[in-house]
Recover the amino acids of this structure.
């Protein structure tokens, strides 16, 4: 006789744990914000109470939405995200304050002031989207129905900036924007989510064929072209678009996620080897054919070369100086000079963190990302359906890769590619899209951790048992 | 699908570990190297957060830091910037430092170990650290007289106190304004820098310390010193003094700048008379007779061949090696490849005025803590004996005679006995010769030894008189300033 599954009410949903952790994240965030203001101006930020209330409201709304619509979701993800969001806001606010300073500006380009206020609005939009996703998508398997729609929509969004005239799409060399009447978004950030849905939906259907029906060519099992066709087309199209848009970082992300999902779906290690070979040859091709890729690699290899140091590699070198100036404990919020690094509040926000929060603070931030990725992958493991597994895994892996590419880039572990740091960097599209991503992870997690419905009581079963 | 998922999770973990290791590498292992890198703009901004110490002449600050409203908290200001430019140097957030700003940076910035305890106290009391100050040996009146005398022409003036080696005057001309380079506006600084660097008068070149010139006839003092020291010559003994000196191995002669013999109607003369009239033939002949090694040893006894740090670095003056007879004759009158800084020629005169003892030149009188406690005071230091006291006395009296009876008439100061020597160094290529004048005063108790050079100052027709005409009045003005005349 099987043990009856516990009733729903008996499973601890851990929502109270989440609330407690959210209060903690809120407290740290508000303290960081106050500290940043005090550090720069020697006065408490004028709108501190209002800021604390707003951030508290954000936490509360997100928490209540999860409690209501994803009751069994993982309790660690939301607090980790909220803490990163709060730290990001504090760092952006801190950089805003410095922008009032005319002298320091001569060390780097001028960024618009008041970014933290705008970012606070973007966070609100992000959290609203988070709630909307939880409300609208009550079961993630619904998404599987829209596999091809998502794929097509993703490609269109991705291609949009490349199709628009440069004046509407180009910012600092990369054509990844859509700008209209003073407002700009990066559609690629949303395309990311749609394409993962497509990858997961397609692979879940074709995984058996991909894994089994194959021809052996030179000792390697290759799937039949018609099974792999659509996904290769979609993937290659996205890569070509990104290359056209000069978005190296996103190219890398798509490639990585694609290969990893293929590996998970088919359980075949040969895909990974395949992926590595393709990546290496593709990277070499890009290095030898595209001047801007070549340049990135050169800067990475020789950042202190006198030819680069005051120009091409200035940003990277000043970022390294920022990290090392911070050292183990950091200068303290508001006590460093992070504005020396150009684009300190977007691509290089980690250099700001590294200078003022130190190694200690950065390790905590990396660990927070680690928690999000870890909980995402655990969700994938626990998910009961293949689509859910692939979806959660894809979302978690893309966060992991993005963090690796960004942090590795600004710390000179790998060549620099322009990507945002999820939840920390200033920028609306990335923030809002990542909030939607978190909602999807929580949605799958809710399904995975939800207790199975109790079996229908049946008296008939007993009669079937043949008793000795 | 769980097995590959677990592997992917492990791989993601590995990526995070790589990031953490790399962060530790940068923020712990490489931290000091990067943090102190001169290209790190933070290092500089840090410096501007402290009040840098002043550079003083007598008790007046000629360089000091004033608080501003901007993020570079202190602005460096130079009073009489152009007059003291090569002593103070500049302090620029873009182009670094020079002069005393560079040589004494640790004390001015407050990083010096002697200020360590004060820094700790400042840290505890949350006072911002201040730099110590540096008092120079310069004399304000003499400095101004020299700057006015040069009047923007290319040249330099260096004056020493013979008994100690204190540098009383150090002016190079044309000069620059260090305020232009200390400005906090990066664009202004860059513009000024480019303007100074593209100026064909080289206003950033310190001609007193970093430029060597052929010393011309002023080098006859060194040749005379070698002759008297050898014991084979006396002040009034008979020496050759023809109108033209035949140079062996060549078909050219060495002529006097004036036509005729040193002593009219005679092929011989005395060293005293030869120095008064600045006869080339006599000193050429003596040089060939003594040989280049003896001349070189004498030059080195006066300080040639050495680099000095006063503490601003000074380039070495040169007496060339491996000379044949005609080259030796040319070198004996300060031509050929002999090169000397204005400081070096001032040292030659100072040693003669100081009974033959050569003192180490220095520019820093005192180093003071922020609270004006004297941390250290420079003690005069002997570099060695250039000539015997008797030889020094002979040379000194001959120099007085140069001013009183010879070519150095423009250095006369009423009521003061002045010793001097003119020089006009030919530079070839049809360019005008450099005009030199070296001197000391008063003769009986020398307070100042001075060297003045004006680049291409003389004219071909004014050979030899160029030194007296152009350089001697500047020397006189500076000496009067020191002597209070």
């Amino acid at each position: 006789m099987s043990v009856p599954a516990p009733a729903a009410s008996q499973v601890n949903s851990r929502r109270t744990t989440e609330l407690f952790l959210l209060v903690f994240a809120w407290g740290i965030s508000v303290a960081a914000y106050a500290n940043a203001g005090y550090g720069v101006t020697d006065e408490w930020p004028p709108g501190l109470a209002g800021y604390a209330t707003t951030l508290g409201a954000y936490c509360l709304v997100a928490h209540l939405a999860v409690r209501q619509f994803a009751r069994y979701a993982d309790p660690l993800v939301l607090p980790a995200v909220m803490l990163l969001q709060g730290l990001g806001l504090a760092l952006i606010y801190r950089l805003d304050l410095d922008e009032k300073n005319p002298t320091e500006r001569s060390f780097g380009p001028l960024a618009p002031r008041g970014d933290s206020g705008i970012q606070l609005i973007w966070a609100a939009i992000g959290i609203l989207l988070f709630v909307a996703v939880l409300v609208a998508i009550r079961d993630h398997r619904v998404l599987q129905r829209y596999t091809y729609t998502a794929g097509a929509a993703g490609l269109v969004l991705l291609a949009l900036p490349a199709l628009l005239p440069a004046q509407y799409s180009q910012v600092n060399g990369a054509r990844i924007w859509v700008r209209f009447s003073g407002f700009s978004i990066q559609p690629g950030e949303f395309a990311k989510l749609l394409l993962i849905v497509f990858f997961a939906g397609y692979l879940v259907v074709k995984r058996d064929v991909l894994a089994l029906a194959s021809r052996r060519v030179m000792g390697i099992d290759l799937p039949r072209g018609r099974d792999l066709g659509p996904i290769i087309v979609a993937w290659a199209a996205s890569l070509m678009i990104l290359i056209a848009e000069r978005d190296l970082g996103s190219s890398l992300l798509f490639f990585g996620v694609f290969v990893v999902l293929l590996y998970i779906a088919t359980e075949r290690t040969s895909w990974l080897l395949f992926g590595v070979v393709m990546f290496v040859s593709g990277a070499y091709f890009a290095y030898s054919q595209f001047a801007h890729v070549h340049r990135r690699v050169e800067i990475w290899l020789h950042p202190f070369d006198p030819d680069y140091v005051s120009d091409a590699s200035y940003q990277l070198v000043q970022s390294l100086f920022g990290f090392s100036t911070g050292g183990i404990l950091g200068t303290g919020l508001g006590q460093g000079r992070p504005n020396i690094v150009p684009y300190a509040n977007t691509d290089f926000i980690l250099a700001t963190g590294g200078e003022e929060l130190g190694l200690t603070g950065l390790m905590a931030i990396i660990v927070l990302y680690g928690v999000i990725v870890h909980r995402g992958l655990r969700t994938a493991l626990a998910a009961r359906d293949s689509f859910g597994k692939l979806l959660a895994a894809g979302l978690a892996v893309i966060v992991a890769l993005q963090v690796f590419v960004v942090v590795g880039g600004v710390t000179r572990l790998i060549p620099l590619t322009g990507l945002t740091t999820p939840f920390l960097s200033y920028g609306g599209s990335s923030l809002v899209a990542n909030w939607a991503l978190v909602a999807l992870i929580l949605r799958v997690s809710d399904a995975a951790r939800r207790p199975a419905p109790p079996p229908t009581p049946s008296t008939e079963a007993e009669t079937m048992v043949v008793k000795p | 699908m769980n097995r590959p998922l677990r592997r992917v999770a492990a791989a993601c973990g590995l990526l995070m570990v790589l990031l953490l290791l790399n962060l530790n590498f940068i923020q712990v292992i490489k931290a000091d190297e990067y943090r102190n890198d001169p290209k790190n703009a933070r290092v500089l901004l840090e410096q501007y957060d402290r009040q840098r110490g002043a550079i003083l002449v007598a008790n007046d600050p000629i360089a000091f830091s004033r608080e501003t409203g901007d993020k570079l908290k202190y602005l460096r200001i130079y009073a009489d910037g152009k007059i003291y430019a090569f002593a103070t140097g500049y302090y620029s957030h873009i182009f670094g430092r020079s002069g005393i700003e560079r040589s004494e940076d640790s004390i001015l910035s407050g990083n010096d170990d002697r200020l360590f305890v004060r820094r700790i106290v400042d840290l505890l009391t949350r006072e911002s650290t201040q730099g110590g100050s540096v008092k120079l040996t310069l004399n304000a009146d003499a400095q101004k007289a020299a700057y006015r005398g040069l009047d923007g022409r290319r040249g330099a003036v260096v004056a020493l106190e013979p008994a100690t080696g204190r540098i009383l005057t150090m002016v190079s001309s044309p000069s620059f304004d260090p305020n232009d380079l200390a400005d906090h506006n990066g664009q202004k600084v860059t513009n000024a820098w480019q303007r100074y660097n593209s100026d064909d008068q080289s206003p950033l070149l310190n001609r007193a310390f970093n430029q060597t010139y052929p010393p011309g006839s002023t080098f006859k003092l060194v040749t005379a010193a070698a002759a008297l020291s050898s014991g084979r010559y006396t002040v009034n003994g008979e020496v050759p003094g023809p109108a033209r000196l035949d140079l062996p191995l060549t078909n050219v002669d060495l002529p006097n700048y004036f036509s005729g013999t040193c002593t009219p109607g005679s092929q011989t003369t005395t060293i005293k008379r030869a120095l008064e009239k600045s006869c080339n033939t006599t000193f050429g002949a003596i040089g060939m007779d003594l040989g280049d090694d003896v001349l070189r040893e004498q030059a080195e006894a006066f300080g040639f061949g050495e680099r000095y740090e006063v503490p601003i670095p000074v380039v070495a003056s040169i007496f060339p090696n491996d000379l044949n007879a005609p080259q030796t004759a040319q070198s004996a009158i300060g031509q050929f490849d002999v090169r000397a800084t204005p400081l070096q020629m001032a040292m030659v005169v100072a040693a003669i005025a100081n009974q033959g003892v050569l003192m180490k030149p220095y520019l820093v009188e005192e180093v003071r803590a922020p609270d004006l406690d004297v941390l250290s005071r420079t003690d005069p230091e002997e570099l060695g004996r250039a000539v015997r006291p008797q030889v020094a006395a002979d040379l000194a009296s001959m120099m007085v005679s140069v001013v009183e009876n010879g070519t150095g008439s423009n250095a006369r100061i009423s009521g003061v006995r002045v010793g001097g020597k003119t020089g006009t160094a030919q530079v070839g290529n049809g360019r005008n010769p450099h005009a030199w004048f070296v001197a000391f005063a008063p003769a009986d108790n020398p307070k100042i030894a001075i060297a003045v050079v004006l680049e291409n100052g003389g004219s071909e027709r004014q050979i030899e008189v160029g030194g007296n005409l152009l350089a001697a009045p500047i020397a006189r003005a500076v000496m009067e300033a020191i002597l209070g005349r």
